[in-house]
Amino acid sequence: MAILVTGGAGYIGSHTLIELYKAGLESVVYDNLSNASKESLKRVAQIIGQEITFVEGDIRNKEQLRELFSNYSIDGVIHFAGLKAVAESVQKPLEYYDNNVVGTLRLLEVMGEFDCKSIIFSSSATVYGEPNKMPIREEFPTGNGITNPYGRSKYMIEEILKDLSKSDSSWKIVILRYFNPIGAHESGLIGEDPNGIPNNLMPYISQVAIGKLNELQVFGDDYPTVDGTGVRDYIHVVDLANAHVKALEYLQKQTVMPEPLIVNVGRGQGYSVLELIRAFEKVSGVKVPYRIVGRREGDVAISYADATLAKKKLDWVARYDIEKMCADSWNWQKKNPNGYETS
Fold first, then answer.
1. For position 61, which CATH number holds?
2. Does residue 251 sit within a domain?
3. Cβ–Cβ < 8 Å for 40, 340
């Protein structure tokens, strides 16, 4: 039996493949390569010493999905596939709802046809909107005050999964609400390789540090935070990947789940944009020039997790600190100044 990893060639997916291998689990990657490179899978194979089974396809295409489930014995699904840029989602909402929501519906329908009813869904802290207190706990309200279509698409999928679980208790579902994954595999072989100008802070910082971009734009310095810049809960991508293995282990122990298990995946500590820049400069020895510009639509001031439930339910805790995250990001960037293009 194998675990289907949708979006498995992407940043988080590729790191998760390594953790699945270390746990003795087979994986099949399904990806349309719209925001990923097959090179990442070659690099994963280099790290683990074993080829990755890859099928190119789109989660919105039921015929492709049916063929996949016919050809492989799939025991469960880790569902990463989705568009993920907050700012882009504000500009292209229909693309986000089509890819993320409709794609997930098609995937769930085909899973049901093949009686494969275990799924781990990669959700996001954006579903909380703008909570009025910190840290964010899983029981906080979701859906209200979400500031962008990306977050709303994640919220809609969560609601679909809750309704599905309520209708049929044979479905076993874990929803992981990610905070802000950064870092890279310590080998420097795989890491975050965004198309064009990065939407996320860490690859932007590291591309400025390597000289690929001239300066970092810091979106807003008038938030009610320690230094006026946005505060986020950063988590090492390897820690996040490991949380999926822990979630699989949890699902395998369950016989019936009356509702999805929903868990925050973060370190439980917030860092501002300027604090992250300083941490990166410390470990890299490189100055990162930046310029303050206006706030970016869709951003919230502060967001960090209460990660207690992850420890209690999944026996998972984040291991790596902010300096390790910065050091591994810089190692990846130095070795791959143009991402996967150079190979």
1. 3.40.50.720
2. yes
3. yes
